[in-house]
Prior knowledge:
Elements: E1 22-27, E2 34-35, E3 41-46, E4 50-54, E5 59-61, E6 68-73, E7 77-85, E8 96-101, E9 132-135, E10 139-143, E11 156-161, E12 166-173, E13 179-186, E14 191-198, E15 205-211, E16 220-224, E17 230-234, E18 239-243, E19 248-251, H1 260-263, E20 269-274, E21 279-284, E22 289-293, E23 300-301, E24 311-316, E25 322-328, E26 331-336, H2 339-346, E27 358-361, E28 367-370, E29 375-385, E30 392-396, E31 403-413, E32 416-426, H3 438-443, E33 446-454, E34 468-473, E35 479-483, E36 491-492, E37 498-501, E38 513-516, H4 519-522, E39 525-529, E40 538-542, E41 545-549, E42 554-558, E43 565-567, H5 583-586, H6 593-596, E44 631-633, E45 640-647, E46 658-666, H7 670-678, H8 681-710
Parallel strand pairs: 2-8, 28-34, 39-46
Antiparallel strand pairs: 1-3, 3-6, 4-7, 5-6, 7-8, 9-10, 10-11, 12-13, 13-14, 14-15, 16-17, 17-18, 18-19, 20-21, 21-22, 22-23, 24-25, 25-26, 27-29, 29-32, 30-33, 31-32, 33-34, 35-40, 36-39, 37-38, 40-41, 42-45, 43-44, 45-46
The site of one 2-acetamido-2-deoxy-beta-D-glucopyranose (NAG) has 5 residues, from loops.
Amino acid sequence: MLRFGVVLTYILLIYFQTVVGIWRYKNILEEKELFIVDRNIFLEYEGSSFLEWQYPEGCDVNNKSSPHAVMWCKAPGFQAVKPLLSDMSTDKEEERHLYICDSFFRLAWYAVIPLLRNASEHDSQEFELATVLAWTDHELYKGGKALDWKTNSSYMSNILSIPKTATILTAAFGSHPASLSALVMYTDSVQLSVLTSYENEGVWKNRTLWSKNVLQGPFQMLFVSAALETLLVWNKDTMLYSFHNDSEWRYLQIMDSSNLSQEAGGSHIHHMIIDHSLNMLVKMENNILFFCKFGTNKLFRLPTWNDPGRSVVLYLNQKEQITMLTMLDRSLHVQKYPLQMEIRSAMREEVHSCPYIGFTHNMNRPVYYIDKGEGVELWAQIVNHEGENINVTLSRNKDHVLHITESTHFESAHHLDTTNKTFNIYQDADYRDMTNNSDLIWNSSDIVSMELLPTQIANSCSLPKNRISHFFVGCPPNRHIRVIKPQRTPCQMHTFDNYTIPGFVLSNSSKDLLVFYDWKSFGCVLRIHYKDEFRPDIELYDGEAFVRSVDANFIVWENFNRKDYYFNATMRQVACLHEAQTWKSMLVDEKRPEEAWGPHNYRSCFVDTTEKLGNLDQPYEIMNRSSKNYLSFSEEYNAIYVFNLKIVDPNYSFCNLRAVFAVQTYGISMVDQLSPHYQFLIPFLISLILLCFLFYRYTSIFRDMLQKKCL
Ligand SMILES: *[C@@H]1O[C@H](CO)[C@@H](O)[C@H](O)[C@H]1NC(C)=O
Ligand SMILES: *[C@@H]1O[C@H](CO)[C@@H](O)[C@H](O)[C@H]1NC(C)=O
Ligand SMILES: *[C@@H]1O[C@H](CO)[C@@H](O)[C@H](O)[C@H]1NC(C)=O
Ligand SMILES: *[C@@H]1O[C@H](CO)[C@@H](O)[C@H](O)[C@H]1NC(C)=O
Ligand SMILES: *[C@@H]1O[C@H](CO)[C@@H](O)[C@H](O)[C@H]1NC(C)=O
Ligand SMILES: *[C@@H]1O[C@H](CO)[C@@H](O)[C@H](O)[C@H]1NC(C)=O
């Protein structure tokens, strides 16, 4: 039987005998805060013993004897509100302490950015993550792409089959974006196991949790998104959760009992939700709600919001608001649940006080991209009452990929301690001296998840929504290089369609080559005087965003194998310590230029090695932003060159950084251009004319002589 993890299946029709009065409220914004300005707070009472609303002086109610009334408050702060019930009633209604904010603004707006499972992924790849898991006793399936009903056979794919001696109890997506897990029981073992795999790897890792006696099924589980895997497992009465890759297990408790059922009048756990700020709500079948900040293990009960007999499910909408879906009169009603207000109202007592006053940080992007040699600086600040021993921790899942250095700025004033921790996150592998098997390392990318939290939290603490960010170590999306067009150099488009390269300047053939210029991929041609030297300057871009000028070493090669361009510096002039790499030395084995030379086999000539000194009077064929090494062109004819450019510094980027630029030289007259071909003709022509002249002279003299003889 397939058990789909879809919200609607949660809706169970449970009926209870007792019906008590309940009351709730809402406002139009339905956000965390209620504002004093013009905001109507709608009060509603469900039940039969209502008399009137009891409310403070600072507020007004349109009709206090109506169970559906509207309230306005003119004064900020906590406002105690409750319904007064008739004397006959044995119910005692709970008082709510609604916190009304003093707000300057009369309207609020927000943008909704959908937090999809794929949204935080690197586009970490052309890899689509699954969004649905389904399982049978021995098989696990995933589904991802939009469901195409015509070919729905391919929607789900089998990702795990286990032997008959084992049973899949439940499955869930993991703490990390690409991971998924199945809870498995083996018939011959008393231990429960979790099988975990990364979707892009497909390798299943097994780890045992605890014996079947600790908690008995049927089980449900949920991984809390975290840097270190955090798992929550529960049956109908008890919840257990793990910390830090299962190194620590705790029961979620109410008072001193670990059994939620007892505290909820015998009702069972229906389901639970947890938002990005670690607010966790456990909903019982009779609609009793328990709350805790995940990580503290003490749950506490929130005021009743719904009739115990009603079918209700909770879900988080895309704005991270908790929403209630209620079945009423055979139709579904959607209603926001003001969790923050309810927590605030219920936790006014001192017992719940938070160990800190404020916690802020600037780790606010879901993904940070870190290329070679780059880093990210983050800070996190915590403010607390003097003497509370509290700090900030940055946890992460892969220690070896990134380096972190920390520095702390501490300040104490007016009995308040302020700790500002700065984290420098960087990647410092040295890719320069990699040996032959370096290709893998050189290109390998990785994702590290990091999480920022105070060292202690309590139920009343507020946490920023961004707690986790993923650090993608690799080539950032759309990163590329561009050759800058020098300002005074004209760059022309569509001035010709084709041109011919004479065979004697080609390195790979002696036949003339007709080139059809591809304006779309080669771009404009830079018009350069034939006597001028030229060195391309390069800039790094992420999409359309300029990143920085590139100072790394690069090489060029002519796209059509022209060899009539030169470098004006020699290896000696640039101070090489030994003979540098050249196209000639790299192009052995008849490799194509694209593969022959690059970051994977680049060796600097400025590093002292035991290599032989060699001939340092050869041209140096590597350029960079600061080098005195320039390209020079043929001085015999105007020519068109299409250059490919590639960065060869292995330490520079994970990306394959290449560009194309084209040069058209000018300044040589047509006659001068002819000379190389026809130079040898001129002495020949002169000789020929001279010969003709001599022949003519000779024949005329001869004819004269003949004439004279005849006479
Ligand atoms: C106030 O509410 C009560 C109960 O719903 C209703 O009977 C009464 O007519 C209302 N008064 C006004 C002025 O609307
Ligand atoms: C914390 O320190 C960093 C620099 O170390 C600074 O840029 C940041 O603004 C500080 N944070 C706060 C809230 O002052
Ligand atoms: C390569 O880059 C790393 C990281 O920036 C740096 O630590 C290392 O010194 C660099 N190597 C060389 C030879 O410049
Ligand atoms: C080359 O381009 C010229 C016009 O620029 C055109 O007249 C000629 O036919 C083209 N040659 C070929 C072989 O297409
Ligand atoms: C190469 O040409 C550039 C630009 O003309 C010049 O600045 C540089 O000094 C030349 N390099 C050498 C080694 O002559
Ligand atoms: C740039 O090239 C010059 C030699 O032309 C060299 O001395 C310098 O170290 C190179 N710069 C970089 C960043 O490699």
